[in-house]
Amino acid sequence: MQIIFFSLLLFISLSLTADEPRQWGENVTGVTTTFQSDKKEIALTFDACGGSFRSSQYDEQLIDYLNENGIAATLFINARWIKSNPEIFSALASNPLFEIANHGTAHRPLSVNGKSIYNIAGTSSPEEVEHEINGNGDLIEGLTGKRPRFFRSGTAYYDEQAVAIARLNGVEIGGFSVLGDAGATFSAEKVAHQITNAKSGDIILLHMNHPEGGTREGVKEAIEKLKAQGFSFVRLSDVKERLIPLP
Known about the structure:
The chain contains 8 helices and 12 strands. It has a single domain, classed as Alpha-Beta Barrel (TIM Barrel). The protein has helices at residues 2-16, 60-68, 79-84, 86-93, 126-144, 160-168, 188-196, 215-228; strands spanning 31-35, 41-48, 73-77, 98-102, 116-117, 120-121, 150-151, 172-174, 178-179, 203-207, 232-234, 243-245. 36% of the residues lie in helices and 18% in strands. It is α/β, with parallel strands linked by helices and 247 residues long. The radius of gyration is 17 Å and the shape is globular.
């Protein structure tokens, strides 16, 4: 029965690629970038990419700050980062403040025909799209007993057919409405400015794997200001029924 089910998924996936995709980018059909809220709520999301010594680092002081102040967040973690930081991953996964989400198996853009961005080659077929999602999904489920609900590709680029395949595989695409740190390249002042100017219902993209950058100090400054304004912070699963996918 399971073989039939996955064969059907593959058939549907292949059918989706009968025509070439028409969209390519961060904001394509089916990507969730905001959520509906009548309260002052913001979703903080942090990527951990892995794949190199620099990208496999861990901003322990940032996570300690979130933990000590009860700030909930969704952590999008790549398979390569998990394999470089197994004990840290285990601690994060066991912390109820944090939700573990899927940041891909090899940190590739999600494409059905091999499009690339920032000199990073995307997946090149429906089968590769599914492997990029499910390879890490299987790893996380095996380590935690929970399959991640949300997926964000490396570079956060997609075509609309790849997004449809992702949803057939049981995950929602966790996009963003506020670029918080631009791959941890923004200064602390710029990070604080980006976050502080967020609106209720925004999803903010940040990184937890670059302690050398300005992310940590910018996040701390912004959170203190937003808390003073009455904002609270949610995981994507907390607002799952209120997420708004792009049409």
